[in-house]
Fold:
Amino acid sequence: MVLTNLAQTAMTATDVIFMGRLSGDTLAAGALGSNLYLMTLIFGLGLVYATSPVMAAKLGAKRHCMREMRRTTHQGLWLAVMIALPIWLFLWNAESVLLAMKQQPALAAQAGAYVRCLQWAVLPFYGFVVLRAFVSALERPGWTLLIMVLAVLLNALGNWLLMFGNLGFPALGIAGAGIATSVASLFMFTGMASIIALDGRFRRYRLFGRFWQVDWPRLVALVRLGAPISAMLAFEVTVFNAAAFLMGLIEPAQLAAHSIAMQITSITFAIPLGLEQAATVRVGLAYGARDAEGVSRSGWTAFVIGVSFMAATALIMLVWPKALIGVFVDIGDPANDAIVAFAVSFLALAAFFQVADGAQAVGAGMLRGMQDTRIPMLYAALGYWGIGVPVGVTLAFPFGLEGRGIWIGLCSGLAAVAVLLLVRWTRRDKLGLAMLQHPLPDLR
Structure:
């Protein structure tokens, strides 16, 4: 799961690298467009994420519950379709939305062209997430990794062909990156669906049989469980989106530097994100089997690994920032001096929130395995928007710290959420969260 998330992050990193080779303004426009895209994508992501703890709990209770797995997957795919339609409508008007946010017209125009091509990745990506949850619940994530590696290569090739016009293809610039990512996302879904249909270990579940039948009670149950997950993810992701939009109000150089620093931290975040997903499955299996010791062991193991790794990456960011930045822009080009200087200062601050970022990610997955999603959602709202954004805005503008103030706000919000989630996990028995003495929720 960790390697799969690294591969998925590599796809976005590839886009950023290619954009940086076009120009600093293109990189800034790409940051605006991708942040708007992710801001909307995340609202539906939590709903399809809900399939993972449900599948894990059912498998923990009954190892070969084929009908339950099939029904949950079907409704996850239906949710994907229902969510994608309004998102497509919104993203089609990306340029107008960015102009309403007071972004620079030239950057908004480029970002709008990018998002109109990128938006078609939404539905296949949601479908891929549902199928990935099915495969992960069966503890066979290797296929997902293979699909993601191939998708990264396909995306890189598409960028090279369509952004720069190589081998006779039209040079579409930033729009070419959007097309490449959409094609790669479609490949991810169709590739995963093909493996499930052909592999004997998956085929016996008859996952795509009678797909057209909507199971409304189960669909509603998934929405109830997934809505708080969506909200929590939205609070987290949109605070980073807000940071990018605030950077856009300052100057393009700081926005471009912010994009580079965020991309570097996104790569490191792939490890605790994979551990979060693993914790959800392993805690969920123990939760379904009524194994209190297994719940504790699975959760703490993922937490210690995640926090330790992020502490190591924080040290790398402090010691070798320019080596990391040089992957995305030419640090020897005088035209990039301002971008590099800002990116170095942002990475210094990012190093301090690495540990908190890993702790809150894995902590959320641990609680999600016990299907505890509502209170963590409130913690996210308080930490990110009640603490992180006000601190960042105050330091950036009234106190004149600009981009550095925004990053300090991000650090404070992540730290607050991490502490709250960890306290809830340690008090899970007193709060009755594990509910090992009660029957599992009925999703019929």
